Amino acid sequence: MSDHETAPIVTLTDAARHFGPVRALDGVSLSVAPGDCIGLVGHNGAGKSTLVNLVNGGLAPSSGEIRFPGGASALEAGVRSVFQELSLCPNLTVAENLRISHSALKGPGWRTRARAEISESLNTIFPGHGIDPNAEVDTLSIAQRQMVEIAIGFAPRGTQARLVILDEPTSSLDAGIADQLLAHVKRFCGSGGAVIFISHMLGEVFDVASRIVVLKDGKVVAERITADFTRQGLVDAMGHVTTETATTETARAHGPQVVQTEQGLTARKGEVVGLSGLAGHGQAEALAKLYLSRSSSWRSRKVPDVVFVAGDRPRDGVLPLWSILRNISISILQQGAKRGLVNREAETAIAADWKSRIGIRTDDVTNPILSLSGGNQQKVLFARALASPAQVVIMDDPMRGVDVGTKQDVYAMIRAEAAKGRTFLWYSTETEEVCQCDRVFVFRNHEISAELTGADITEERILQASFEMQEAS
Amino acid sequence: MSALSRPWIWSWLAAAAAFALTLVLTSGRGGGELAYAALSFGAFAAIVGLGQMLVITLGPGNVDLSIPATMTLAATLALKAMSSDPGTAWLGLITALAVGVGTGLANYALIFLLRLPPIIATLAASLVYQSVAIWSNRGLRIKPPEGLADFATGRFLGLPNVAWVGLVLAIVVWVVLERSVWGRWLLATGQNLRVARLAGVPVELVRATTYVSVAVFASLAGYLLASFSGGAALNMGAEYLLMSIAVVVIGGSSIAGGNSNVPGVWGAALFMFLVVSMLNSYGAGAGVRNVLTGAMIIAIVIAASTRRTRA
Amino acid sequence: MTFLSRHRIILPVVSLAVLLAATFYMQPRAMSYFGLNLLFNLAVPIALATIAQMMIIMVNDIDLSLGAFVSLAACVTATFLNDTPMIGLLILLALILSYAVLGALIHALELPAIVVTLGMSFVWSGLALFILSSPGGASPGWLRTLMTVKPPFAPMAVVAAVIIAGVTHLLIIRSGLGTVLRGVGGNARSVERAGWPVIRLKALAYGLAGLFGVLAGMALVGLTTSADANIALRYTLLSIAGVILGGGEFTGGKVSPVGAVIGALTLTLAASFLSFMRLSPDWQIGAQGAILILVLTARLIFSRKGAEA
Lengths: 473, 311, 309
Prior knowledge:
The structure holds three protein chains of three kinds.
Chain A: H1 2-6, E1 10-19, E2 22-32, E3 37-41, H2 48-55, E4 63-67, E5 79-82, H3 94-100, H4 110-125, H5 142-154, E6 163-167, H6 175-190, E7 194-198, H7 202-208, E8 211-216, E9 219-225, H8 231-238, E10 257-260, E11 266-268, E12 272-277, H9 283-293, E13 306-309, H10 313-317, H11 324-329, H12 344-358, H13 374-387, E14 392-396, H14 404-419, E15 423-427, H15 431-434, E16 439-444, E17 447-453, H16 459-466
Parallel strand pairs in A: 3-7, 3-8, 5-6, 6-7, 12-15, 12-16, 13-14, 14-15
Antiparallel strand pairs in A: 1-2, 1-4, 8-9, 10-11, 16-17
Helix pairs in contact in A: 3-4, 4-5, 12-13
Chain B: H1 9-25, H2 31-57, H3 67-82, H4 89-113, H5 118-137, H6 146-153, E1 155-156, E2 159-160, H7 161-179, H8 181-191, H9 193-198, H10 203-228, H11 240-250, H12 262-281, H13 286-310
Antiparallel strand pairs in B: 1-2
Helix pairs in contact in B: 1-12, 2-7, 2-10, 2-11, 2-12, 3-4, 3-5, 3-10, 4-5, 4-10, 6-10, 7-8, 8-10, 11-12, 12-13
Chain C: H1 2-26, H2 33-39, H3 43-58, H4 66-83, H5 85-108, H6 113-131, H7 141-148, H8 156-174, H9 176-193, H10 198-224, H11 235-245, H12 257-276, H13 281-308
Helix pairs in contact in C: 1-12, 1-13, 3-8, 3-10, 3-11, 3-12, 4-5, 4-6, 4-10, 4-11, 5-10, 7-10, 8-9, 8-12, 9-10, 11-12, 12-13
């Protein structure tokens, strides 16, 4: 038994994985021992997901070796993963979802035991979570679903979780809940568990990780204990040089008011308006409602009032069967259409123009949209919106899963378009992004709790307005 | 991309094989007659199939089960309006098409206003249409006007007139899907309704026009079929329920929506006729004929799908 | 939330009750052991077929061949099972097995179920014609006895419906395996990732559908005492309507066995109700469609109210 405690849970020796000619992972050696909390960082396409899938046994390596000293397979060795995309069964209850990943739960009374186990796990990680184990998952909010998924990951499930892989676990959690999770990760590792923690929020990685592994182009380019890294050093190691918030623009004069909702959300011509607050407090709904009220299911105008940039790409953005070209042009088909027929020369020209302007990485815009990485698909969605003549652009957390370099490009583009007189409404879960806006509305409990402008837009003020602690003044 | 990776090729190959196998038995005689008959009868399946294809393109769950009832109702009311008088063919056509627009709008109203799944909405509505047809057809046996019957059974440039109608419709549908703004909207809606709506596509307009189109296609097919076969019968549309879905799928359109295939519908419509006549000429009974038809539908779907995944 | 999850079953119950009350109002004599038996006479095979369809809808597929399949099972029951029980039983088992194989095939080759079952409907009705080219055959005596047994308090059809609902509820909603099966409909990928062989689960769901389809055919023969190749063709659409009336949905694994049985009872009752109303035969089919629309409209209104509450 004591041998178990110190022996690594998983060791990779020069493991590689190829998909056809693509070397997704190009020879990685890594060992995870009890008590480790490994922060795994890297850009999109650096090989993080492939590495995760090798460790959790979802993929076999093309070459090299993976060993689980604690058992024959990843599952037996107590390796669990919590995936970035939500992978619960929405039609089942929280407790029933535990049954899916816990096949030993059976026989009479399994429901009672499942309820007890998931409640205990939720109580341990997220005290005061307020989730009913009998609730069907599709009645929960996204954040609650993510919490359930994490709780299932850490639940004993007959054996014991020894290594839990968390892939962007906080992307839909608000700050308070995320802190609960980070605290639990530390406790878990302190008591001999191990965690591989993947996040694009470097602050979190520095907070929990004992060791940071940097992946680039399928290889480990740096692996050190956390204390040996600085933020800038980490970003440099990933291969992108970020300019620390390059521009805090001087306030410009904006035009007349072009957006006004019942809730009190307003925007003026040429303004970049941010929506902030804790995740799930009504920002996305407010934007969707605004978009739907200013466009019609029955009529399509040549010059639409508003356009929408989706953050949840599969649900709201990408038309999966189509080429990049057709995905870009769907909102502008009526431009230059004659007798209801699409003007295909104009369509091709616009797509080629945006491909180079926004830097979509493809050799041919007639390639399928799904041949692109997530970040590049997001660029296509930006191109779709910006190519339209609409004056109001609504963006629902559009930077999810987008790497730092692309973000900087898009920030610049938004600034340039705003200077030309377009209005942007931009919901983001990342405070850093919101701080770049001209004006910020903070949401709390589906209402606007504060409107910040100019120098007032600081992380501190936003947090104050997000939490109940502040008296309404 | 080789020709074999195009999904519609399979239905044409299958039709050609059935044609050849029939001719083997007759040592090549009667090929012209067989092809002519296939084009005549295939035209009706192709017309309803084109309509069903548009609906299926709208995405999962979209299908029109009221096609047979619409065909019967349109044919019955059109024949009643014409009451065998010469020179009333246009009146009949307009009546039939008006029935199509009416049932299409009614179907869509059920789907949109009552939020019913299209399968259930069109199924329930078809029962009502069927009743109206029974009621209006009671005790009547009206022949189509002579001129119209001659047109429906006649030929032009060696091809049956009904096949010309089906061909023209196919070309129109193809152009609409490939080149028009509305076609793009339909294909986008079929891939993901929410995405299409958020991209500014007027999705409800697209859905409404699609459900009206399928009903208009069905009513046209009913009108032509009644003129072709010398009168309407209450069960005249029955075989076109499964047939319309079968030709769409054998033709290589994706049942998951967002992807349609016009030439394949025609190939499949010919195949469905040719396979039955092939089995007949080999002396197969009704049971064997059914079993083999079913087996062939499945074989074609499997062949098309394994091709697709490899391509 | 608790209201929502509960009302999914309340609505089918209410629509059945309303229809039943209307029937009793029109024809008070129906309010008796004998009357109920008459009203729900054909409910058992329809309920079984609806459960079969529900198994398929549960895993996000749809079965367009069910009517032909039930007809075939009825033909086998009325011929082989009656004449040479062992062979008959083997054939019926083979039919169930072929359903399971079909499910595995559909999953493995990622075929659209709607088309494969469409093709199979030709196959099943061809086989049925092969076995029984003209109406005939006879019900095995024990089956006839079973279907016409007169239990105390409530007629056979009602007792059988309650048993069917109870057993399938335990099987699909309460049991662990049933939960996993519904999980396949909800999110097949996550079930697969948790280490379940989804292909076997799909085969199981289809196999269960085959089992209930065969039972429906047997029950039908027990009631009608003979069979023909087209005896149950309308069950395809009836069973789909029954599942939806019972609060099920076409996608996402949201099904309710109790609701499905109630949906089947509602459809059976609708037919009986119309004959009580002495409606002109011209309009009976149409009125059935109208009742279907009416019930679903009521469901919409209630669920909208529910969403507001």
